[in-house]
């Protein structure tokens, strides 16, 4: 959210020179409902100069996403529990039903109107370590007019020869793609086009961490007409599952007395130079430990 303030001075009439000062402070908060129904917000209480001021209460009507299987959205983790400094891959998967037509550019997406993904934890979660999210997205940025997905309303500046100034537009990102299938409630396989984007996190502090649901909203192509034009589309708004990751402490049972605190996946390689020598010649033995994790 954010805050803003305004200041107004009004001079009274009648030549009295009376001055009235009015000040207003506005604070904005971003709220995300976690369930459907009629929800109440407030009233809120503000204390100033020892006095309590109470706001009005608000009611919101929250509608649950439509139950559908045309577009599936899910979060998956390579592991549900890690040790400090161990890595885990968190993957967002978007499965769009493959209805069979020859999609424009091979994708069920409109190039000029990308579906919008909102991934609340993409830029990081306190207590977990990760590279900056923009570094990941930069490698996926679509430079031409190919279709893609918008992520977290990231924008790019585009210069047009017909514009007098630079215009900002939603960036489109090309996600990894493959053909996939899922069974419907009756057990029959259905073909999907699966898109996915992933982030790698590692444990920095012990505890449980929640990856909040991802949101997806957009228009998807469902059918093409005999003239090669889009004949059917579907507007989708859907939420993924919520995922919990636990960063656990090192098990103390069966720890060897020589344990030094190394955590991760490592390889040990030995090498000796020279390989041919005479009795009494010095040799150099190198022992290399490599991998991912913490050695101290």
C-alpha termini separation:
41 Å
Overall pLDDT score: 83
Rounded to the nearest angstrom, the radius of gyration is 28 Å
The count of DSSP E runs of length 2 or more, i.e. the number of strands, is 22
Proportion of helical residues:
under 10%
Strand percentage, roughly?
A: over 45%
The largest sheet, given as strand count, sense and whether it forms a barrel, is: 5 strands, antiparallel
What is shown here, in short?
By secondary structure, the protein is mainly beta. Helices cover 2% and strands 50% of the residues. It contains one helix and 22 strands.
Give your account of this protein's structure:
The protein is mostly beta strands and 296 residues long. 2% of the residues lie in helices and 50% in strands. The protein has 1 helix and 22 strands. The chain has one helix at residues 133-138, and strands spanning 2-11, 19-28, 37-41, 45-48, 51-54, 58-62, 71-77, 81-82, 87-97, 116-118, 128-129, 150-151, 155-158, 167-170, 176-183, 189-203, 207-211, 215-224, 230-239, 243-247, 263-273, 284-294. The strands form 8 sheets. Strands 7, 9, 11, 15 and 16 form a 5-stranded antiparallel sheet that branches. The chain has a 4-stranded mixed sheet with strand order 12-10-18-19, with no helix packed on it. The chain has a 3-stranded mixed sheet with strand order 8-20-17, with no helix packed on it. It is extended. Residues 160-167 have low confidence and may be disordered.
